[in-house]
Amino acid sequence: MMGPPAHESDTKPPLGKTSLLLAGTLRELTVHADVLALLPDPAIVRNCLDLAEDAAGAIHGSMAAAHIGADPERMIAAPEEIDLQILRDMDENSPHQRFERIADAFEDWKRERPDRASLFLDDCRGDIERCVMTECHETALVVAPCHGNMDAQDTFYDLLFKKHKLVLVPPAGAYSGNLLGHVVIGWKPHKHALRTVVAARRWLAAADRVTVLCIDDKADGNYQRTASELLDQLGLRGDVVAVSAGGRPVGETILEFARSTSATCLLIGAFKRGYFMELLLGRITRHLLSHSTLPLMMKH
Questions:
Q1: What does the DSSP 8-state code read for residue 55?
Q2: In 210-274, where does DSSP find H-type helix?
Q3: DSSP 43
Q4: For 87-114, what is each residue's pLDDT tens digit?
């Protein structure tokens, strides 16, 4: 059985970290937030925080931020797993050092605007799966990277495939803002795509423009018809567009359409066949995660 993850309340908060509070207080702020910026990798802290701030502001909702990280000294697992985590220290520094880098980046971001003064950073270390469950089980939208260090990759997998959360993935490069200026939805009438649109309804309703993209529609127009019906049922306004891939990969076609229409965010149902099959087959989700320069909102 896995033990509970350790939190910042287990130790005295480091001096100078004015945004660290007792975990009991932070947990209330974190688990009830509409949008949670989950920060497992120091390299992408700013993008995650900027995205989460925009996503929360768009729906006039609340935002929280939390560090999450594997710590072999605070987890109960097989010896092989603990040894693997210990070996990470040579390349990625210790769990405490990784947290310190994230906390410093968070403080730098927070100091840039006075209205961020009420935002605080939770800290959950131990087993990644348990930390994800602890921090995210009530959150409507989680902002988290899909690439990066081992913590980031494990967190992304758990969010999608074990907690089935609506996840907003930052782009690999800089985030240019205007998250909901034009949301493009990659649509096929499959359950995972339907679940994603329903879960994202609050953000789609707040978008300036929504386009539902139907690629290689059936001869009877089934994709367009079901897309229009879904928008009506959810009370959303948007255009429904059908295009042909022309023999190109669907992921490439989605990205080309997004570029040509100045999209600011892509929404897709992620990994129809499951994570490992997608890795083997190189399907649409993996292509978008690897090549998109836009934020990706997705749910499995």
A1: H
A2: 222-234, 250-260
A3: G
A4: 666 677 788 889 999 999 999 999 999 9
